[in-house]
Design a protein that fits this description.
The protein is built from 14 helices and 2 strands; from the N terminus they run H-H-H-H-H-H-H-E-H-H-H-H-E-H-H-H. It is mainly alpha-helical.
Length: 341
């Protein structure tokens, strides 16, 4: 049985993303103090902290799925489109249960069905990615690039190229900064993200399947010689990733209050960047769910800090683009250094 790489058990590597998070927070605190002092109290407020944490949910859940894929040596460029398609599926299911004289009254059955349909939609997309890539021997980059267009087109088609609006329901409360009930303190979506983090973390660290994920990314040929079922494992990895994208789609629906086929455009870049910033390697074999969540928090904090500094939206995109390039450059440098040692 292949063992986990030393990096995954290295506490220093796990702490680095959080050190980076503290650095980004300190940097923006200093910049806001220097250039926009009137916004400093707002940036440091608990209200903004809750907003940042809540806005991290969609990327964070997606990053958990992407962590498994990237650690296994794969990639998924269809993440944003899968989130959009799942949010539309969620909204359409809600509307299917909204009947009678008071359509706003949607019971737990309707909301549960909507969430399950969204998850099934994401799982089907992921299973398609994994199956086509493995069975037809097509690189996942190409397969998921095609699926990105297929899923986006499907979302626009079934939504008739417009937002799918629904009656008010409790599912829309999952992304509220002020939760109901108040004793939750944080939005329900945040607690769901934490639960998923624990589940993915345990799966990757303490299960045979998790060892398979690291083994595939470290050396697929060796993993095959060890008797690991390569195709079946990869299909399962992509299916689980798609399922998590489906949950992100539910959170996207909750955040927007509707199913939007145009949402999450280029969101896969934020998700991939979160994984790489969190210590994952695009070469495979390295990845940490908790690091990916820290990376997602960094991405959200960047947007919040730029907004407080009144940085224009186009400039924010340029900054994030450079950060993505920098994160990949560091990952490449680390890979070459390890190969040379």
């Amino acid at each position: 049985m292949p063992t986990l790489p030393a990096l995954s058990s290295n506490w220093k590597s796990l702490l680095l993303p959080f050190i980076g998070l503290l650095f980004v927070f300190g940097l923006f605190t200093a910049l806001i103090y220097a250039f926009e002092p009137d916004n400093l109290s707002a940036f440091l407020s608990s209200r903004n902290a809750k907003t940042v944490i809540t806005q991290t949910v969609i990327v964070g859940i997606g990053a958990l799925g992407m962590t498994m894929v990237i650690t296994s040596g794969g990639i998924d460029l269809s993440a944003g489109s899968t989130i959009a398609l799942s949010s539309v599926a969620c909204a359409l299911t809600i509307n299917a249960f909204a009947s009678g004289e008071d359509p706003a009254t949607i019971g737990a059955l309707g909301m549960t069905a909507a969430a399950l349909v969204a998850m099934a939609t994401g799982a089907a997309t992921g299973a398609f990615n994994g199956s086509v890539s493995c069975l037809l021997k097509i690189p996942p980059f190409i397969v998921t690039l095609g699926t990105m267009l297929i899923a986006r087109g499907a979302a626009e088609g079934i939504a008739k190229q417009s937002q799918v609006r629904t009656p008010e329901n409790a599912l829309q409360n999952f992304m509220q900064r002020k939760p109901d009930p108040e004793w939750l303190f944080l939005a329900p979506g945040v607690w769901i993200t934490l639960a998923l983090l624990i589940g993915v973390g345990i799966t990757m660290r303490y299960t045979v399947f998790g060892r398979y994920i690291y083994a595939l990314g470290s050396n697929e040929s060796t993993a095959r010689l060890c008797g690991i079922p390569i195709a079946r494992t990869r299909i399962l990895i992509y299916t689980l990733c798609g399922t998590l994208m489906g949950i992100s789609g539910v959170m996207s629906y909750a955040f927007l209050g509707s199913g939007d086929p145009t949402t999450a455009v280029a969101k896969e870049l934020d998700i991939i960047a979160a994984v790489v910033i969190g210590g994952g390697s695009l070469s495979g074999g390295q990845g940490s769910p908790i690091g990916s969540i820290a990376g997602a928090l960094i991405m959200t904090l960047l947007v919040s800090g730029c907004s407080m500094l009144n940085v224009p939206d186009y400039s924010q995109k340029i900054i994030i683009g450079f950060i993505i390039i920098g994160a990949v450059a560091v990952d490449t440098w680390k890979t070459r250094r390890q190969a040379a040692s």
